[in-house]
């Protein structure tokens, strides 16, 4: 450790960190709940990330093209699973919850309308 830096990460005030952790847990739970309302999206609750992986393999075998369509039509940015897993990512999308709750709600509302229309 540099002189004078001490162990602030270990000995400092954890209040702000705990507050941020709680905010991310609330956002995670919101994203999980909203994604579960969207037909065609299957998810598991993440334990320690700031994103949710969704299985959309019954809707696509090209997550890059599907993510591009979602960006183009409802205007929602999602990350194709292929960016993280070249073997199994073709049927997955990644949804970040490192945004404001208002942005998350708006984006997932748009996605729901898009996915509902796509079923028809």
Provide keyphrases for this structure:
120 residues; alpha+beta
Describe the protein in words.
- The chain has a four-stranded antiparallel β-sheet.
- The N and C termini lie far apart (60 Å).
- It is elongated, with a radius of gyration of 17 Å.
- The model has no long low-confidence stretch (mean pLDDT 91).
- It has four helices and four strands; from the N terminus they run H-H-E-E-H-E-E-H.
- The protein is of the alpha+beta class and 120 residues long.
Class computed from helices, strands and strand pairing: alpha+beta
Which strand order do you get reading across the main beta sheet?
1-2-4-3
Helix content: 40-55%
What would you call the shape?
elongated
The number of strands is 4
Mean pLDDT: 91
Number of helix segments?
4
**Biggest beta-sheet profile:** 4 strands, antiparallel
Rg from alpha-carbon coordinates: 17 Å
How far is it from the N-terminal to the C-terminal residue, by CA?
A: 60 Å
Give the ordered list of helices and strands: HHEEHEEH
What percent strand? Answer: 5-15%
| Spans where pLDDT lies below 50 across 5 or more residues | none
Would you summarize the structure shown here?
With 120 residues, the protein is α+β, with helices and mostly antiparallel strands. The chain is built from 4 helices and 4 strands; from the N terminus they run ααββαββα.
């Amino acid at each position: 450790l540099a002189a004078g830096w001490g162990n602030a990460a270990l000995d400092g005030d954890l209040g702000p960190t705990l507050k941020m952790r709680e905010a991310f847990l609330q956002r995670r739970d919101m994203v999980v709940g909203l994604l579960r309302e969207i037909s065609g999206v299957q998810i598991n609750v993440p334990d320690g990330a700031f994103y949710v992986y969704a299985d959309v393999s019954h809707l696509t075998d090209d997550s890059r093209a599907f993510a591009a369509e979602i960006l183009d039509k409802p205007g929602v940015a999602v990350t194709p699973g292929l960016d993280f897993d070249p073997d199994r990512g073709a049927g997955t999308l990644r949804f970040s919850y490192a945004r404001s709750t208002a942005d998350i709600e708006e984006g997932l509302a748009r996605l729901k309308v898009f996915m509902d229309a796509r079923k028809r």
